[in-house]
Amino acid sequence: MTEDEAKEKNIEYLVGKSMFGANGKALTMGEGEGFVKVLAEKESHKIIGVHIMGPHASDIIHDGAMAIQNGLTVENIKESVFSHPTLSEVFYEAVCGCIGEAIHSLPKKK
């Protein structure tokens, strides 16, 4: 689901976004461009949308697809272990970002 689709359906949602440029694996691969964006229902924290633009997106999108298909919440994902260093950590960080708990981010532009 996209933000526009959520708005059309009057679904209140949270957004978490994580950049590949803040991920060690992506940087060592020389592929720091791109991001993962996760949408979660505001009240239930259920994952309702995942968007990935970046290196090996097709290798990561299954994390989001499984979360949506199985009705997982932000908290369910947070309780999972993500290997390090991996690109899938960008998905984890975006999920945590939905509730303001992401720890890896790019410095703010001045």
UniProtKB/TrEMBL annotation:
GO molecular function: dihydrolipoyl dehydrogenase (NADH) activity; flavin adenine dinucleotide binding
UniProt-listed Pfam families: Pyr_redox_dim
EC number assigned by the record: 1.8.1.4
Entry keywords, A to Z: FAD, Flavoprotein, NAD, Oxidoreductase
CC cofactor: FAD
Domain Pyridine nucleotide-disulphide oxidoreductase dimerisation: start-end pairs: 1-94
Oxidoreductase found in the keyword field: yes
GO-annotated biological processes: 2-oxoglutarate metabolic process
Stated family: Belongs to the class-I pyridine nucleotide-disulfide oxidoreductase family.
Protein name: Dihydrolipoyl dehydrogenase
Biological source species: bioreactor metagenome
